[in-house]
Design a protein that fits this description.
Layout (H helix, E strand, L loop, with lengths): L1 H8 L2 H5 E3 H6 L4 H19 L5 E4 L4 H7 L7 E7 L1 H7 L5 H6 L5 E6 L11 H12 L5 E6 L25 E6 L2 H7 L9 E6 L7 H11 L1
Parallel strand pairs: 1-2, 2-3, 3-4, 4-5, 5-6, 6-7
Helix pairs in contact: 1-4
Length: 220
Amino acid sequence: VNQKLDKLAQDSTFTRSVDLVTISSNEDNESRTNSILDRFCFDIIPRIQYNIECLTVGPLSTDRILRIGNYPKLNKLILVNLSLKMASRILNNGSSFIHIYRHQISHLVVTINDDTTAIRIKNVATNIFANILAMFTNLIHLDFNFDDNFVYPPTSFIKLLSTTCHSSSIVHLNVRVRNFDDCLCLLDGRLSQLHTFIVKIDNIDDLSMSIRKKVRNFES
């Protein structure tokens, strides 16, 4: 394993795009996985951190990799299988990561994987999404999605005012929402530069009042 990590550290292609999810997922033993991640974070990262442009991290590696490194070229961050608790801790205005990289990240991918049934977390995902729009000033590409096992309906934007939840930089958005009303909210002008919109809608059984009105107006 050590020889493999040393070889990776010398690979210029690898040092530009580091995927720690792939590295850790190849090990079934959690203790061994932690040992590999520790070696990578404390030995390999200091040697390649100034070359890294893209980081892919999961719940086991996110805290250590974001805490120990200095990544002046980092512009793309992929956060995989985070719990809502971890995502809300990292993606909030008090986070040291946000303080350092809020003007640097242009591409952000977040996948939530959380099976908690606590009712209090019902709106946490929506708040995380709104925080992302507010904090990342140069974000142009955002994927914000959920594992299929996510208990509660996903992000809803109906109650988020366009004055507090908006972006003048995002051109690509991939998101999972509750219903068509959420789509309309995102297309009301709050994302002024948006030109690619990929959306997964959980509930399309009943057309909302606003959509029925728009359809009637179109038909007339």
